[in-house]
Design brief:
With about 350 residues, the protein is of the alpha/beta class. The chain is built from 11 helices and 17 strands.
């Protein structure tokens, strides 16, 4: 059942879809309902973090006395997505202690590097989908469940993703912070960012504004005590900075994850992985300036994620590299804006350590 939700981008009507996280949540809920009622259902409804309620078709239902399973087909709408059309399965069995234990099976990747959204060895099911699954199952009964999420085509589909580059091996990730896939072109996203900046300027003036790449950065900003205006700029840091500067904003604070802002610290102003992946190179650059020995630079060069590189640096006494990156990013931004006196502040956080890194 396709989602009856559209957006208009560049004058085109584009159909929205739903995430692998929504699929996993719906499959788990449907399996739990079938296990409780001992009967097959054709549809299941779930809530999403975006506020959109989904009614999805249930496929491949199977019930035994001990467990039930079924699948939900991923529909990415008009967004280009390698996981579009994949079947996400859930196998659910009952517990008697009220706990909901979630794991990944066939086709779901495993985390092999520290610094991702889970522990090493854990299934690559992100925090928001886990919360969604918990919420939906608690609506069925409070007895508790074992939940196994799997995707038979996941290993093959994962070869078309960036998972192996960030330390997720053996399958796809179950992801999605909103539950809904909103298709958006680069031009359309930039226009949306500019419109939000214009709106905030009219409401708050142009004294100060906070830029973050996404939802996590926004949450960190609020935990640090920052209030609106906070604008999510995705990977378009350079375009957003130039727009703000030319609009006459007097000061800007940027708050972002070490993975993206390590790139910013060496002058990368579009941080999408398809444009540039200079995370490790950034660490090596700043560590070299700190006088780190070659053997340590070579050790850092073997890391895959920025979080992993950061942990090695901290353990070896080079945690100051983050502060140097923040100052370096501020310097690069001033050069980018051709204004050596511009009031700019960069704050880098990590998933493991928050903003108190050093």
């Amino acid at each position: 059942m396709s989602l009856d939700l559209t957006v208009i981008k560049d004058g085109k009507i584009l159909r929205c879809g739903y995430t692998t996280g929504s699929c996993a949540s719906a499959a788990a809920k449907a399996a739990a309902i079938m296990l409780e009622k001992k009967e097959i259902i054709k549809h299941v409804e779930i809530d999403t973090p975006s506020g959109v309620r989904l009614k999805l078709d249930v496929y491949n239902p199977f019930i035994t006395s001990e467990y039930a399973s079924c699948s939900i087909t991923k529909d990415a709408g008009d967004d280009p997505d390698n996981t579009d059309g994949i079947e996400i399965y859930a196998k659910v069995s009952k517990r008697n202690d009220g706990k909901i234990i979630i794991d990944g099976g066939q086709g779901i990747g495993r985390i092999t590097r520290k610094g991702l959204f889970g522990e090493v060895g854990q299934a690559a099911i992100n925090p928001v989908p886990r919360k969604m699954i918990n919420k939906e199952l608690e609506e069925v009964t409070d007895s508790g469940y074992n939940v196994l999420i799997y995707a038979p085509m996941g290993k093959e589909v994962s070869k078309k993703t960036y998972n192996s580059y960030i330390g997720i091996i053996g399958g796809i990730s179950i992801v999605g912070t909103k539950g809904i896939v909103y298709p958006m072109s680069d031009d359309a996203l930039l226009k949306t960012i500019y419109m939000e900046i214009d709106m905030f300027q009219q409401k708050y003036g142009n004294e100060h504004i906070i830029l973050v790449p996404g939802n996590y950065g926004q949450n960190i900003a609020k935990k640090l005590g920052f209030e609106d205006p906070i604008v999510k700029v995705s990977n378009y840091i350079g375009d957003s900075l130039l727009y703000l500067y030319n609009k006459g904003f007097k000061s800007i604070t940027l708050i972002g994850h070490i993975g993206k802002f390590s790139k910013l610290s060496i002058g990368v102003f579009n941080t999408h992985s398809r444009v540039c992946d200079g995370r490790v190179e950034a660490f090596i650059y700043y560590l070299a300036l700190m006088g780190a020995p070659n053997y340590f630079l070579e050790k850092v060069n073997t890391t895959i994620t920025a979080e992993e590189a950061l942990e090695i640096c901290i353990k070896e006494g080079y945690g100051q590299v983050v502060k140097d990156m923040e100052k370096g990013a501020e310097c690069k931004i001033r050069k980018y804006l051709k204004d050596d006196d511009f009031n700019i502040k960069v704050i880098i956080y990590s998933m493991e350590r928050g903003v108190n890194i050093c």
